[in-house]
Amino acid sequence: MSELAYETKNGWKVADDAKKKEIFDFCDDYINYLNVGKTERLACSEAVRRAKEAGFCDIKEIKTLKAGDKVYMVNRDKSVYLAVIGEEDILNGINFVIAHIDSPRMDLKQNPLYEDCDMTLFKTHYYGGIKKYQWTAVPLALAGVIYTADGKKVDVRIGDKPGDPVFCVTDLLPHLADNQMQKKAPKIIEGENLNILIGSMPDNDSEKDAFKTAMLKLLNEKYGICEEDFISAELEAYPAAPACDVGFDRSMVGGYGQDDRVCAYTALRAILEIKSCKKTAVCVLVDKEEIGSMGNTGMRSAFFEFVTATLIEKAKGTYNELMLKTVFRNSECLSSDVNAAVDPTYPEVNEKRNASFLGHGIVITKYTGSRGKAGTSDANAEFVYKVRKLFNDNDIIWQSSELGKVDEGGGGTIAQYVANLDMEVIDCGVALLSMHAPFEIASKHDIYMAYKAYLAFYN
Ligand code: MN
Ligand code: MN
């Protein structure tokens, strides 16, 4: 590709009709994945379903690994590692593509249920960075798990199947919102006001708490749960609307959770299609990125080392710590996360020579961070060269971008935690508009290029 980002050719301009059809067909299935996998648990189980279909086995069932073997390992139903064993010695390193499958949303609190003004509602605690005002007055669905007192696991998913009822956070009418509209945007809707309306019918036999009682009876009939069971539950409210084509030309995909399931899906497709590879290929779909990658299902969990150690042990028949560190030192990683595309309505937050544009291909981001590269892995020039050459040699349309203007803000990705393990890593993903909103936009061209890029990296 040529020179500066803003001069880079738009990928659509060089795509003929056959190529456009390939891109559109690819994105039809991407939309399916978005609609099935709307939470990290759902995205994880859908990835495993597809992996099994492609011949991957649970690593627990395998004693030794040889070239061509395909295995997966699930961590607590919220993250998954898929591996294709390469022809080379695993000590020569692994090619990792790592994306996250958690997205901003509203989690139910552990004591969520209450009644007020003859209505029944859920209290929530939002997850990840959201503009709270975007999450009112939109239809919401609910999914997750509940463990009952006797240990039964109840799967919940309601609101995004045809015919399902939906839920919603209500907002004030403009006529009575004078005070509200004077507030600064972060305060227009307070976190404690993200209460979800779930019912409005009383129990005819109760004098006290008739609305809450009616809801508990209903939930008991439907799910076999009682109020205390919410304590041992994880329920997430997310936009109910399905993902879909955007534009008269259908050139874009709109939908919830494309940060970062757009990179998760394309990385998954790539690893499932590997026939054989020189170096061992691993795709990691990880949880908890949106809240700092903390916890046992996030990228900072020792589970990452556990999986890598397990691969070494099963491939070599032996294991020690030096082998693990050697593998990391010899490994390369694409930290596959989204970038913020220039929005024509808000160009002032980007510096155009170092910004990403919709339709201009997969984005390479050497560093993220904020206020002077704080909190980032700054990929070294040698590795950037390698990735750039790989993409050029494989006709991948790509662009280079920062996350925004120097002092405009910023953010971190999992790249820093991977880099700390002594691995080569660079951020590399799809540019979005309206990131973290209930409806995010990506270019179909870029989605397809991400898939092609990950495939080239694995091979
Ligand atoms: Mn992300
Ligand atoms: Mn994000």
Question: TL;DR?
Answer:
By secondary structure, this protein is α/β, with parallel strands linked by helices. The model has no long low-confidence stretch (mean pLDDT 95).
- Count up the helices: 11
Q: Name the CATH architecture of the largest domain.
A: 3-Layer(aba) Sandwich
How many extended strands? 21
Bound molecules: manganese (II) ion
Which sheet architecture does the biggest sheet show?
9 strands, mixed
CATH topology of the largest domain: Aminopeptidase
Uncertain spans: none
User: Percentage of helical residues?
Assistant: 25-40%
Strand content: 15-25%
CATH-defined superfamily of the largest domain = Zn peptidases
Q: How would you classify the helix and strand content by structural class?
A: alpha/beta
Distance between the termini: 21 Å
**C-alpha Rg, in Å?**
23 Å
Give the C-level CATH assignment of the largest domain.
Answer: Alpha Beta
Keywords:
alpha/beta; Aminopeptidase; Aminopeptidase i, Domain 2; 9-stranded mixed β-sheet; binds manganese (II) ion
Write the layout of secondary structure elements.
Layout: H1 17-36, H2 40-53, E1 57-58, E2 70-75, E3 79-84, E4 94-100, E5 105-116, E6 119-127, E7 140-147, E8 153-158, E9 168-169, H3 178-182, H4 185-188, E10 196-199, H5 210-223, E11 233-239, E12 244-246, E13 252-255, H6 258-272, E14 280-286, H7 303-316, H8 321-330, E15 332-335, E16 339-340, E17 362-365, H9 381-393, E18 398-400, H10 415-420, E19 424-429, E20 431-433, E21 440-443, H11 444-458
Helix pairs in contact: 1-11, 2-6, 6-11, 7-8
The chain binds manganese (II) ion (2 copies).
One manganese (II) ion binds next to helix 6.
